[in-house]
Amino acid sequence: MEFKNAYDKIYSAWMGKIIGIRLGAPVEAWTYDEIKNTYGYINNYIVDYGIFAADDDSNGPLFFKEVLRNKKIEEITVQDIANTMLNYIPYEHGFFWWGGKGISTEHTAYLNLIEGIQPPQSGSSKLNGQIMAEQIGGQIFVDWCGYCSLGDPHIAKKLAHMASSITHDQDGIVGGEYVAVMIALAFTYHDAYTIVTKALEYIDTNSMYAEVIQDIIHFYDANPNDEMKCFDYVLSKYSYDHFPGMCHIIPNIAIMILALLYGRNDFNKTMTLLCTLGYDTDCNCGNVGSIIGAIVGIENIDEKWITPIQDILLASSNNGYLNQTTVSDSAYEFTQLAFESHGLEIPNEYKRDLSTTTYHFDLPYATKGFIAHSSRYCESNVKQDQNKLKIILNNCFNDYSLDVDKITYFLPDDIYDARYDPLFSPQVFPNETITVSLSNPLNCNLSACLRITYTDGTIEDSTSIPFTDHIELQHKIMKTKKTVHKIGLHFDFHERIMRKYILVNSFEIDHHMKYEIDFKNQSPCDFGLTFGETSCVNPFLFSLHRGNLNYTNSGFELISTDEAFIQMGEPHINKRVIEMTLECDCEEAHIIISSTGYSDFLSLKLSHEKPISLCKKNAYNFQEIYITNLIYEKMNSALKVECTCDLIMVHINNQTVQIPMSLNQSTLGMFGIYIKGNGKVSLIDCKLEGQFSI
């Protein structure tokens, strides 16, 4: 399969998934009668979410795909997928619905994994009971298995079987296999009926799950023009009243098959019918969105579904940097990992450089989260057009201005609600250089500059330059203790501009961060109430996996009652300097040099009156790689760590040691702190510097 074909197919499927989640979220768990009496037939988004917060249905595929990084697809094991889950899922907050052990299937299986119960026993009906094993989570997170199969249903089934077995069993696993296989088949077949029936060949036809699908197909064959009669049939045999648990998988697949068959390959009809009929609308519309999106392609999805998304995709893993992405960028990552894990070469024109962040406007609607702040004195919008970002200008008054920017660190006021505990950390830092190429093909009379907006509301502009043809703007963000909130462009108009546009040809950030954290002016981010009516308050800057973080006048305290873990920074940096003053009041603390997540990091271990050592955490195990001759003592310690690809220099209290790096140890990742056992680490000041070095 050609890379571009796979990229386009995965993008349209993933877009369908994101549309389905957003469409179904407001009426999740509503009955058909409640929806009909309140909204009537749903034919558009019923809530204007603005920037939609995280959702479990997209969290799963977005992060579980990471198991494919640096591995061949035939090498993947169920334990690898479980380790990936542990690496990115925060401890009992965000990501999933944490309904309690014995109530929420994912919560139960996650705690099983934490306690050392290995998959597939972690999700088995023998351990957790059949009711828990057959809830909906077995199929709602497996879209990545279909995408990354590149159309091979056998690979899709294998990956989904492993992924679903970590948390589910029996029909819960069959459901994961079936949904992933349908997505894979949609790479080849363009008819929902064909896909629904052919996918049955890949699952246990003696399972109840398969019997329900066959039953709905038979009903459709006999009544092909009466979806409401079919819905009445589904209610009579497969409603939630007939199946135990919070959200059983059988009612969901029954209504999904109904929508796929009666939707007749029409995206609008399939999705609006499915949402209007009720039940688990966000999960069902999400899964079906993947399938029908892959069938029809992006060109056959009405833009009324796509443009409100603004190409923004938020998540709630324990990595606040990665929790801020776009639909188009994540589609690229699915495709990239699929090709690499299949051993396929990515064409040069699609390879991406880790040393910079480049916003690629290479897919329809791929606006990368840039928003034009239109007003009555400047009507503006942004569109993707021929691999460029088009900034539309109309009725822009003389002596007025326009900002077009992108949020690089989301704050509570930026998003709609506290859905699934939003958790973010900055993506752009002081001392980094932004370079933008602009074209002015219609000779608009205006000036342009780069604009940096900080979290305190202050603004930093580059020199404003008038241009009538082409210009390249470049600006190095000043060294400051402030935190970057948005980056973008500012335009000043020197005449009234009508029916014209500006083109952004390229937009790049060269990562060479130098950032001193200002603890004195920090406070937690209060995102408001969750659906459970509890407060969602998360740290400023840092992504908290587990533990408590308290801000003080002199810094912050990370507090642990069992273990604690926080991280922040730029994940694509492998050459860094960390300077801090800290005090460890705990038996064992780790200063994390590079981290991909909770179960995969490289760290310096600090234990009172013991030698400082270099450690590697891999899943459940800590490996002590190198023991230095420096003894750590509990006191205010001035620590400096200089890290390159082949050497780590540790300076503490006027002592220095060099630690050689082996070839199999990566320094690529985030900075953080980990505490093992009870206690706390007090961080008084902290300076970070880093860049990517080949």
Automatic annotation (TrEMBL):
Cofactor binding remark: Binds 2 magnesium ions per subunit.
InterPro entries linked to this entry: Ribosyl_crysJ1, Ribosyl_crysJ1_sf
Domain of life: Bacteria
Signal peptide extent: none
One MF annotation (Gene Ontology) recorded for this entry: metal ion binding
One protein family per Pfam: ADP_ribosyl_GH
Gene3D superfamilies assigned: ADP-ribosylation/Crystallin J1
Cofactor(s) of this protein: Mg(2+)
Binding site for Mg(2+): 56-57, 280, 282
Keywords attached to this entry: Hydrolase, Magnesium, Metal-binding
UniProt-recorded name of the protein: ADP-ribosylglycohydrolase
